[in-house]
Specification:
With 220 residues, this protein is an all-alpha fold. It contains eleven helices and no strands.
């Protein structure tokens, strides 16, 4: 879990800010307090979409129900309303799949990666996480914890590059929000794919601004 959740694990997370760059540029985020509020919103949105899909992917992989993995992947992709979110999820998902096949010899991941390359399935990162964690014998709690940690740390690592905050600020926020994320798990654990919800219009607006804006520290 430590290796897969590490912010230095080479899946491309370093290249994305989850909309933070636009939030800073437009003045939505300007200090540690607003950064924590923004990061919490992103973490909450991720938990009730990506987190649900990741758990369903893991369960399907454990049961060797490949169609369930595809269903989780497609359902999640339909909830990504902006191109930037789709690009981030698909690039990171494909890279994790390539690493998973290379490092851990996962047959299900190899099949899924082939389908991603053939455009049979979108190839979202949380779904790749579910497949990989299942193949390594890691449980739902570990998967959810690693996923949420990754989402939160992605935003906070970006903050250190585009906002006047310190490592003390970001580590405090990481600790508090990681703990808070665990409080959402009992509800998320029993959610069906059709119960995923993604209503966060401000994040989609910020993503659209980043896609056509002049800010270019992070990928769009």
């Amino acid at each position: 879990m430590l290796q897969l959740a590490d912010s230095a694990f080479p899946v491309g997370a370093f290249s994305f800010s989850n909309g933070l760059e636009s939030a800073v540029h437009t003045g939505v985020v300007y200090d540690a307090r607003t950064l924590q509020a923004y990061t919490r919103t992103i973490a909450l949105q991720a938990a009730f979409t990506d987190g649900v899909a990741a758990l369903h992917s893991l369960r399907s992989a454990q049961r060797k129900e490949y169609e369930g993995i595809l269903q989780a992947d497609r359902s999640l992709h339909q909830l990504k309303l902006n191109n930037e979110a789709r690009t981030m999820q698909q690039r990171m998902g494909r890279k994790l799949a390539e690493l998973g096949v290379h490092l851990f010899a996962c047959d299900t991941m190899e099949r899924w990666l082939a389908d991603v390359k053939e455009d049979i399935t979108p190839g979202n990162y949380p779904v790749a996480q579910g497949i990989l964690f299942a193949s390594l014998g890691l449980n739902e709690d570990i998967l959810y914890t690693a996923h949420q940690y990754g989402v939160i740390s992605m935003v906070l690592n970006a903050a250190l590059r585009c906002l006047k905050v310190s490592h003390y600020d970001t580590q405090r926020i990481l600790y508090q929000l990681s703990d808070e994320s665990l409080q959402w798990l009992p509800e998320i654990r029993y959610m069906a794919l059709e119960d995923m919800n993604n209503f966060n219009p401000q994040a989609d607006i910020l993503a659209s601004l980043h896609e056509k804006g002049a800010m270019r520290m992070f990928m769009n």
